[in-house]
Amino acid sequence: MTLAPGTEHLLQLLILTSIVLLIPVFVGVTVVLFKLAFLIHSTSDFVNFASNELTPVVKELRLTVDHLETMGHRASSGMQDMGQTLQSVRPLVKTGVARTKTFASALISGLKRSFDRNR
Q1: Dihedral through CA 83, CA 89, CA 90, CA 96, nearest 10?
Q2: Residues near 3 by Cβ (< 8 Å), separated by ≥ 6?
Q3: All residues at 6 or more sequence positions from 11 whose CB lies less than 8 Å from its CB, including other chains
Q4: CA distance 112 to 105
Q5: How many Cα atoms occupy the beta-carbon half-sphere of 18 within 13 Å?
Q6: What is the spatial distance between Cα 114 and Cα 117, in angstroms, rounded to a whole number?
Q7: How far apart are CA 52 and CA 45, in angstroms?
Q8: What are residue 2's phi and psi, to 5 degrees?
Q9: CA-based nearest residue to 38, from 49, 50, 46, 26
Q10: Any alpha helices (H) in the chain, and if so which ranges?
Q11: Which of 13, 73, 80, 82 is 20 to 30 Å from 28 by CA-CA measure?
Q12: Contact 45, 53 (CB under 8 A)
């Protein structure tokens, strides 16, 4: 099949135009792929840097949490010991208060009697 001379010329012009348009598209895709590769490389470097920088911080944070947990247990056991001590001291305080009241009333009555005799 043969083409008309004008049609053949238009077909060649269309092929040439397609090639000319494909060159910027190819260059644009190449630039996008290059920048994407650079972005992936930069992200990888950032993740490695962050991992290396955060590892000591995470270790210190774990140690701090362990110390806080130990202090919490100590404080809790100290509060329990203090509660037990207060429970054991309470009867002694009640006895002391009762004896102090008895002493005070005896002292006051004794003083009243001694001042009443002198008159």
Answers
A1: -160
A2: 11
A3: 3
A4: 10
A5: 6
A6: 5
A7: 11
A8: -110, 145
A9: 46
A10: 5-118
A11: 13
A12: no
